[in-house]
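Hey, can you fold this one?
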Amino acid sequence: MKKVDKYEVDTSLFYDPQAHFWVRIDGNTARVGLSPLIQESNGAFVAIQLEGAGKELAKGESFGSIEAEKHVGPLKMPLSGRITRFNEEITENPRLINYDPYGDGWIMEMELTRADEEVPGLIFGDHNVVQWFEQELKKFSDKGWIAQ
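Sure. Predicted structure:
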């Protein structure tokens, strides 16, 4: 973990620079959750609807929706693959995403189908993740999406 401003960022993970998902890759499988910056900018999560378990979806396709204090919107696949499992605990308690984003607040697990093509588009490595997170933090702050 690295401290970036007031955020704990797990730099051992991959990050989707568009949707701000973190992705923990283990061979051909991955666990997916939301970055701390998205949690801060959206406020407390109050509802989550997950769909598509067992289905193969392409990167960018919707696998559900999420509702927070400041945002309602779709959840889009960070990588192509087959969803193997959803975290049922977050459907009952969506705030786990806010309180424990890298632990109990994960969203789904999946089998990757196009990892060789798509993983290189993710952000990875201490320096790269910290640099990206700092840039996103500035952008979010400049747009008024988070209070500083």
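The radius of gyration is 14 Å. Let me know if you want another pass with a different chain boundary.
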